[in-house]
Amino acid sequence: MILDKINSPMDLKNLNLDEMNSLANEMREIIIKKVNTTGGHMAPNLGIIETTIALHYVFNSPVDKFVFDVSHQCYPHKILTGRKNGFINEEDYQKYTGYTAPEESPHDMFKIGHTSTSISLASGLAKARDLNNENYNVIALIGDGSLSGGEALEGLNFASKLNSNFIIIVNDNQMSIAQNYGGLYDNLALLRETKGKAENNFFKTLGYDYLFVKNGNNIEKLIEEFQKIKNVNHPLVVHLITEKGHGLQQATDNKEKFHWIMPNELDEKPEITTNECYTSITVDYFLKKAKQDSSFAVVNAATPGVFGLSKEIREKLGKQYIDTAIAEEHAIAMISGMASNGAKPVFCIMSSFIQRTYDQLSQDLCLNSNPATILVYWGGITESDATHLTTFDISLMCNIPNLVYLAPTTKEEYLKMLDWSVEQSDFPVAIRVPSTELISVGAEDKTNYSILNKYQITKKGDSVALMGLGNFYYKAVEISKDLEKEGINATIINPKFITGIDVELMEELKKTHKVVVTLEDGELNGGWGEKIARYFGDSDMKVLNYGSHKEFSDRIPLNELYTKYRLHNELILEDIKKAL
Amino acid sequence: MILDKINSPMDLKNLNLDEMNSLANEMREIIIKKVNTTGGHMAPNLGIIETTIALHYVFNSPVDKFVFDVSHQCYPHKILTGRKNGFINEEDYQKYTGYTAPEESPHDMFKIGHTSTSISLASGLAKARDLNNENYNVIALIGDGSLSGGEALEGLNFASKLNSNFIIIVNDNQMSIAQNYGGLYDNLALLRETKGKAENNFFKTLGYDYLFVKNGNNIEKLIEEFQKIKNVNHPLVVHLITEKGHGLQQATDNKEKFHWIMPNELDEKPEITTNECYTSITVDYFLKKAKQDSSFAVVNAATPGVFGLSKEIREKLGKQYIDTAIAEEHAIAMISGMASNGAKPVFCIMSSFIQRTYDQLSQDLCLNSNPATILVYWGGITESDATHLTTFDISLMCNIPNLVYLAPTTKEEYLKMLDWSVEQSDFPVAIRVPSTELISVGAEDKTNYSILNKYQITKKGDSVALMGLGNFYYKAVEISKDLEKEGINATIINPKFITGIDVELMEELKKTHKVVVTLEDGELNGGWGEKIARYFGDSDMKVLNYGSHKEFSDRIPLNELYTKYRLHNELILEDIKKAL
């Protein structure tokens, strides 16, 4: 194997072209095997193998500095920079994160997992270089899909004026995670058609020198082109055409599906799951509602697949389906505008990405109190990479005035809340879609959610009140059973409302309870439970708050996190008994 | 006066051109007088008078819908839509907010004060219109300066594909608040030079139909042009050239200064203030540091004036001064890159605008723990418009892992923190620049701020501990004096660290104190005080938290807010005595 000889980018420099082509094949093979075993980003990495080899052949990392946008395409880079074991040895498959990580290698400049950041980060590297009168190449590699994000566009406007070396490689594989949306993509298409010769050129309008490179999967041509631009003394965009999923037919045939795959995607026959889950009942609701009401629309920012919005569903929704491209800020402002003007938009977003919209939530949506609906998916404490934690949405959102943030615990509650939100016209509403299994109680929820901040007592007890928010409602139920064994009759409360306190109920509790326990599946700091602690601050009530700590945990087993955060039931039980 | 006859845009339609020109003069006169009396946005409003008249003459507001970006230029619109009294009668000068506000008029679509939002908001209006099969014009009016913001650029990418009427008027007055920065502005200059004929056209690359209108201050020409595009059936950019400050020579001569003015700017001789303040000592520090260290740089996002970064200072800083244009997201990512690569950036930003960067603070900066410095100006409870509240920065920032957010209380503390932050290499640091008068204690601060979360006891007492954060430290001191009169010897604590708790000190307090009072000049929800309440939740300590409520207060007198939030010293005293 050629790969045996490659332990750092320096080792590449001794290879001839044939060897590099063989190396690409070897890398492709191990990436396919590894990703099919562990899951991960398949198609973006397969498309960038040749580019990565050519870049490391021509430039001198880490003196020359690469920034990989969103790092969905950093596996080949990892293989060439001393981490090939993580792709060859099954026992090392989990050793490295799927994203760039400076703690792993000096060839990684930043820990990156959110999109559209590379140009700005890299322009910071370049600015520091220039202030310190140093000389080397700074290269941002960004996919066409990531270009639509506001941060990337701000960076593009800024960086063209750097007056020094700055290379942006636009990896144009003609795809975002799903299809691209927006006017920019027509210009990229025009540039592809004209081999970069069209007069009207988005990058040139922003002041960039521009190089069109057709053969993004041809190492020889790439080396030739990169050698031309090495040490360029001004900002330059390389418009590089690659094939997403290159070399794996299943991936090139189905680029959206193979952007990120689950384990064994290649081997298994696709299984038709008919099991209901929160995602599937949401899609069912969308289809039904869209049919009934032409003003209803489903909005998402470039990640339809994760919400079950398959091509088929999208087609059924027709013009009632809106993909904003990667543009979460725009999406929130747009749904505010829609809701203010007689439409009923529902915006689907993952907990980790709602972070990209704080000011839009505050100013565009909540200050204007427009009745749009936001579904926040997969909020909660997980074993995820530090780049994709889903523990911050509560503390981010629950302190914004006017927003109603709801935490359902059952299918019936969720559907009731969702339909209430869509039909009401008073509040901006977000719903934290449960990340538990689907739990159905059978009976319809008849709550009127327009009466805000009304918590539900599901079991009346004394001395201890267990308040379990959303996902953690069931933790409250479990702990109450444990307490029962010890002769303690706990009250169980389903708060439902993250954004407010049921003052009446809290006053009731003061009369009959000694300890209040809050349980939330997210960061304690700035979250919901702290507000309960504050409420009882001047009283004799003891308050115990449970949730995650303020930290970027990085692929830590859930069990370990629960121990650290004292979230295991027996630990909570211990604390309660101590407090009583 | 022509204006006497104008009570709604309908009344415009009966005027002839001469009358409209007279009207423009009358409007200009009252705007100048009003703004010079009350302070406010002068130059942007003077530049857009003729456009606003022509727009309301040609289109039919509120059926046709206007969205004014950042609404720095909405005074003429307010005058024409039933609110002229707010500009004519001195007693009504404060009646209307300086921004668009739907509660004032059906001609205002949104409450807007942050920039770069109009295209996205308007595209929501258009989407709703299309879903409901309605027919009218939707018009976003956005300044060239606001175009550099990520949200605007996301919106531009999206809206060109609307397939229906959508008009973006780019009000190109060749200025942001100060000078424009970025490649885009060279393209706008090229388009101006070529009268819109240049092949390479930023807006066209994004798929827009494009109309160049040279005479943005000529009503006759404007009417002609707007009549051409009324009811256009696709997205169109009108590139409109106006003169910022038109008709007032002082304003056209000094556009930056006259963007927003203080009262009586036109009448008074400029006073050279030599009084030290937190802004001036910061600028002094910048100049000194920049001279000493070529890797030091001052960064801001298009609002240099408010930080005392005058043209003269900017020139002195030379390449160590960076204006990112309106691009707060880019700025945070860039300083992270700079700090990771051997530079020492300090980013100046107003509390209200740090909101625009949550994800960049979290992912680009804090996840990477790069030692950049952020100065947050004017955080605190004020009488401001709801669009510019400065109460949210603490709850936004203090729950982000790794960030060190500091609250100095004196000149010496502030300068020590600032220099410590610039020189250290372990933490991303933000400092909440005091919004109090400059307070100097004379003696140098010798604290080592690398020892995190160490609060300072400035007076040792018993039973009650008063913890006053930043601006509110002095409130703690005052209250302690009041308590002394009642025979209560309170402990006073200067926490300094917003982002952490001094656990050791808190445990000490448990032994000797009964009541802990937290005072913070910002929102209680999600803020610093709640963490103290949570900390003491399982103990017998009584905790009283003071700060602002979760609300968008809108130009409410401070005294009234303090009453509502129980922030008057006598109210706090009352609560303490009750708790003891």
Throw out a few tags for this protein.
Rossmann fold, 24 helices, 16% strand, 580 residues, five-stranded parallel β-sheet, homodimer, six-stranded parallel β-sheet
Provide a descriptive summary of the structure in words.
The structure is a homodimer of 580-residue chains. The first copy, chain A, is of the alpha/beta class and 580 residues long. Chain A has three domains: 2-261, Rossmann fold; 278-432, Thiamin diphosphate (ThDP)-binding fold, Pyr/PP domains (Rossmann fold, 3-Layer(aba) Sandwich); 456-579, Rossmann fold (3-Layer(aba) Sandwich), CATH 3.40.50. In chain A, 38% of the residues lie in helices and 16% in strands. In chain A, strands 9-8-10-11-13-12 form a six-stranded parallel beta sheet, sandwiched between helices. In chain A, strands 2-3-4-6-5 form a five-stranded parallel beta sheet, sandwiched between helices. In chain A, α4 crosses α11 (219-229), α7 packs parallel to α8 (150-159) and α20 crosses α24. The mean pLDDT of chain A is 96. Chains A and B meet through α7, α8, α9, α10 and α15 of A and α7, α8, α9, α10 and α15 of B.
